Known about the structure:
Helices cover 18% and strands 27% of the residues. It is an alpha+beta fold. The strands form two sheets. Strands 1, 2, 3, 4, 9, 10, 11 and 12 form an eight-stranded antiparallel β-sheet that branches. The longest helix is centred in the first third of the chain and has 33 residues.
Amino acid sequence: MPPMTEGKFALWYNILxxxxxxxIIVAIVAGIRTFLxxxxxxxGNSMLDxxxxxxxxxxxxxxxxxxxxxxxxxxxxxxPNDLSKHYVKRVIGLPGDAxxxxxxxxxxxxxxxxxxIKLEEPYLNDRNTGHTYxxxxxxxxxAEIRYDVxxxxxxxxxDNRQGSLDSRSxxxxxxxxxxxxxxxxxxxxLPLSRIHVLTKPDYGF
Length: 205
């Protein structure tokens, strides 16, 4: 093979090799973002003090391919009133639960139980502890309201109870389907001063 022909062959071989590697890398990254983990930026203050505005978080998508959301999980999801958006809130009511708001507190009647349990929420700051009201969240309405969570759906609340648009205000349904819950918040990635893994609270039931 003449030297010039060999040079052209080597050049095209190298270009093809680079392109194949780029395609493989893009496919791997796309697969990781689709099925395993994905970055997400928090917008707004609805999860104070757990998450802050403009923080970068990493969500674990794989966990809900192998299991279902648990009470206390902080999740990224599509709200029923606008499926084009992504919100981040905390799972409070599971399928079959009754979630009762009364006197600014949250009570749970777990699925299949007649027992009503007051939810202890250590992640709420002083401003929000004892101030979980029905919509509008800052209205201060302490009257009782009950939400019966359908099968396959979840009731979600922001940790900033007086400044969060969540299941209390969602329409036409108060609840989020499991298909629309995209992943559990795994850890805060930025800023560096806030890096830590989010742990699920132990509610004792």
